[in-house]
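Subject: design request, 124 residues
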């Protein structure tokens, strides 16, 4: 049985409200990235892949929130999402969802703890 893998993100104090950390990983054995962010005090994470087109949310700008700081936003085409659910509220992709990634916030910091996610340097 494979042991549980946790991937370090950052210390809790280093993830401010409406801020994010990008973590390059293997997602289902394919190179990908995960965005880990804080919204309304809660630590959340999604696979960094827009539902409209296969582009990373931060592909054209080093940001994932819209100008209001209330919605996640793809920097390429402007598709917006509810941060808590990952659901698109843009007409073109209405109701489609970002892929959630399990994270844990513990005394020692924030960790990705999703079984589909492995460190980039891990083989097989």
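Subject: RE: design request

Done. Sequence follows.
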């Amino acid at each position: 049985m494979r042991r549980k893998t946790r991937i370090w993100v950052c210390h809790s104090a280093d993830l401010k409200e409406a801020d994010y950390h990008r973590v390059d990983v293997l997602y289902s054995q394919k190179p990908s990235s995960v965005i880990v962010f804080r919204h309304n005090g809660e630590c959340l994470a999604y696979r960094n892949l827009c539902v409209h087109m296969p582009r990373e949310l931060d592909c054209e700008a080093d940001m994932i929130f819209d100008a209001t700081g209330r919605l996640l936003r793809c920097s390429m085409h402007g598709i917006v999402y509810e941060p808590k659910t990952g659901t698109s509220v843009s007409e073109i992709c209405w109701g489609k969802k970002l892929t959630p990634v399990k994270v844990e916030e513990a005394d020692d910091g924030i960790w990705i703890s999703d079984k589909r996610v492995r460190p980039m340097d891990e083989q097989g």
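The chain has no helices and nine strands.
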